[in-house]
Hints:
Elements: E1 9-10, E2 13-15, E3 26-33, E4 37-45, E5 50-58, E6 61-68, E7 78-84, E8 87-92
Antiparallel strand pairs: 1-2, 2-3, 3-6, 4-5, 4-7, 7-8
Amino acid sequence: MNFAGAQSKVAGFELKQNTPNPFVGETVIGFNLPVSGEATLTIQDVTGRTLRVVRGQYAEGYNQVTIKSTDLAATGVLYYTLEASDFVATKKS
């Protein structure tokens, strides 16, 4: 997966840094959407292996997803990608 072109904020779309980072137990990933609709959050390890996918319908404005460490079969550096409409952004946890 190529992260070079990923942007975290474009015209009302924003993928925020997870908090706390680094996390133990659980972390919150926040994001803003300019319009309500479907979004997919994918968490991957450094090798690109998908660890968790969260899909849902989200409201216009601020939304957040809580991820528990027990939901992930990995530790260390992870990447998370938000896809909504024509927007894609990736951040490192």
